[in-house]
Amino acid sequence: MIPILKTDLSSELLDLENYIINHSCDIEHWFRTQWLEHTAPFYASVDLRNSGFKLTPVDTNLFPGGFNNLNPDFAPLTIQAISVAIEKICPDAWRVLIIPENHTRNKFYLKNIFELTEILKNSGLEVRIGSVDTSILEPTNIDIDENHFITIEPIDKREDFLFLKNKDGSEFIPCSIILNNDLSGGVPEKIKNLGQQIIPPINAGWPTRRKSSHFQYYSQVAKEFSLLTNSDPWLINPLSEKLDNLNFSSGEGEDRLVETIDRLLHQIQKKYNEYNISQDPYVVIKANAGTYGMGVMTVKSSSEAINLNRKMKKKMSVIKEGMSVSEVLVQEGIHTEEKINEAVAEPVVYMIDHFVIGGFYRVHTSKGKDENLNSPGMHFAPVAFETSCLMPDQGRPCHDKANRFYAYGVIARLSMLAAAKELSVKE
Amino acid sequence: MIPILKTDLSSELLDLENYIINHSCDIEHWFRTQWLEHTAPFYASVDLRNSGFKLTPVDTNLFPGGFNNLNPDFAPLTIQAISVAIEKICPDAWRVLIIPENHTRNKFYLKNIFELTEILKNSGLEVRIGSVDTSILEPTNIDIDENHFITIEPIDKREDFLFLKNKDGSEFIPCSIILNNDLSGGVPEKIKNLGQQIIPPINAGWPTRRKSSHFQYYSQVAKEFSLLTNSDPWLINPLSEKLDNLNFSSGEGEDRLVETIDRLLHQIQKKYNEYNISQDPYVVIKANAGTYGMGVMTVKSSSEAINLNRKMKKKMSVIKEGMSVSEVLVQEGIHTEEKINEAVAEPVVYMIDHFVIGGFYRVHTSKGKDENLNSPGMHFAPVAFETSCLMPDQGRPCHDKANRFYAYGVIARLSMLAAAKELSVKE
After folding, report:
1. B390 and A76 in contact by Cβ < 8 A?
2. How far is B55 from B407, CA to CA, in rounded Å?
3. Of A367, B217, B246, B342, which has the fewest beta carbons less than 10 angstroms from its beta carbon?
4. Within 10 Å of residue B92's Cβ, how many Cβ atoms?
């Protein structure tokens, strides 16, 4: 099933989509030359939004947590992509350790870990799961459904390497460590200064990473891509600005927040006027380092952002694992105009290395089109992409599944390229 | 549909299949280290035979001609693999020229060229088809079915590069040339000494290549692999011997042929005794350089090989494009014990670079199990593999589709490794 785009594509976006579909050779060639210069992170998922006049990424997750939501038909594509990534990063790897998030009660997340484990096993790796959660004291089996379970084990460290203890007293010493933990709670002492390779590197975690930096790189990439497609970069790039030294509880920085929101809303309105868009502009205020949809607020005027009640203030000031927010990204809100059975649908594209391996729609029945879909508890129904994102069909229209997914794959890869530039600077 | 194996797997082959399925990590790791040292050819198809007591390659084609027979569900896998191969071999490539075989009347072959073109286009390349057939004087459209056609164009050459003429007088200058012509008729003057890259290189063609050399390398690879699996290399390796300076018409070398056949039959019988196999040994006599099943003969005794009638003598002495046979490979015949609806089924595995992308069964209703299935005219029904060859399932038995296909993929990759070694020596 592919969502219905409620509004028609504006002629500009249609032109862009048409360009993307009809110039896949130029685009693939451009990507090839980009990937020669920039190394893609190990994996990522990119949240996209399609407003009918704009198609942009809104979030790039470097520790993707929804492998279980992908179409199982494309598992071979993922396995092949992982094989290529492993060959590039650590061809000698034999045993790998996955370090998952600590919230072991979330069945959806555990299913993701199960799928990731299966994919890595099928790529020919011996895989075990070790937690940095200090409450895991012995190997713990957790059922993920009637027929499957995963075992999460405590991690041991000696000198500069991690290992797991086997039942017979011997040791499982991983060649590489695959992080599926975004380090929102800080970098655990245990994984600091390791001799083993950590994939992706620790600096991809939120203690170092900033959304503002990602979108700065994305903005550059979008500009370069727009030169190629001869289109307005705004069509694929959400405007955004960073603000720091904020304190939502004490009100520190409120004046700068108001200024920034007003400026952005004004810029968006100007663009809306240029393209005859009658919808109301809005902005999204996000923690600059963090995830899981906490600390995300949608506002249509600056007053909404400062007249917060106590509950909202608390929501904005705390993200995952109790970290407080003092830095935000104010970003142009992208109306979600894709709907499946009247429910808002947000595409999420998955990549391994620079390969698009699939995606799914986050379908949310109880939310409006300008609200954040990735909310706490993740009450959404995933609808896997039916076809791959690899096969544009130039004989068919833009809203053809294969073509829309191809366009999504292109925009997602632009985000991956931005992430590649972002991480290489930090290293 | 997966064929029924008419005889049960012998315990040795079952052990080997079980080993392959249950040690996929060791095997994939082994392959990863091999591919670090050896560069796989651009593409290949490997004909396998499964006799229930032996699973071996019988032919490795470096100019595969059956892309149209693969499961279309796995097209994305092929596109991704091609993208990786292109990135490795010629990341700057934009335009490629496919040089097909000259027999433009074979609809099956033309469908293959159409599919190959589509895959390359979907990998982001501009693709055109240029023939070395001197009878092609202008761009020629050939229908391959009701909705599709391909255009085969004459190739022009200036200095050391090939190009096609565009209608407007401009030129299509390919960055790379993809050969899908095994050069059985010799290397055309036009493609000699080119500045453009030819993929695979000309020395992969039959003027230079020898089956005996391939199987010598395969034999080495099989031995190394058998050390890993702790099994008898004979289980995956057909015995073979090369003979040269033969003339089937004049009878030159008949004595040596008799000797060789008798020796091989004796060796096979010894192995059959060792494994309590009651079937009759046989050998296959093939042109050492050539293809398309011409010049292939199956014999159960040396007398069969020398008491040929005129027609048979002619068949043995001439292969494709009128080349005569003076060098043969005498190879252990592998009984085909896989059957689909009572018809003999021979698996063919397809690879791009070192990635197994799928395969199909050549199902032949009118032939016996010890005859050559790849006969002139190709009167076979292709049955595409239903699942990929990438996902062994250790919880399920060997004859489970995923597991049998995985085992096929492993043996096919051993052949690809042999081909990699074979080509690197010639370069």
Report:
1. yes
2. 9
3. B342
4. 11
- Distance between CA atoms of B288 and B298, rounded to whole angstroms? 15
Distance, in Å, from the CA atom of A189 to the CA atom of B20, rounded to the nearest integer, reads: 40
- Which tokens belong to A392? 């544009």
Rounded CA-CA distance B373/B348 in Å is: 11
Calpha distance A257→A330 (Å, rounded):
8
Question: Cα torsion at B395, B397, B401, B403 (round to 10°)?
Answer: 70
Torsion-angle region of residue A315: left (phi > 0), alpha (psi -120 to 50) or beta? Answer: alpha
Of A201 and A388, the one with more pLDDT: A201
Residue B119 amino acid letter: I
Q: Are B155 and B161 in contact (CB under 8 A)?
A: no
Residues A239, A264: Cα–Cα separation, whole Å: 7
Contact B24 A94 (CB under 8 A): no
Cis peptide before A200 (omega within 30 of 0): yes
State which residues of chain B have pLDDT below 70. 1, 291-295, 309-312, 315-324, 365-379, 426-427
Query: Residues A241, A22: contact at Cβ < 8 Å?
Result: no
Q: Is A176 within 8 Å of A96 (Cβ atoms)? A: yes
> Residues B7, B8, B9, B11: is their CA dihedral positive or negative?
negative
User: Residue A301: helix, strand or coil by DSSP?
Assistant: coil
A167 CB-contact burial (10 Å; exposed 0-12 / middle 13-18 / buried 19+): exposed
Please give the pLDDT value at position B371. 56
Inter-chain residue contact B36 with A91, CB threshold 8 Å: yes
Min Cα–Cα distance to chain A from B78, Å: 9
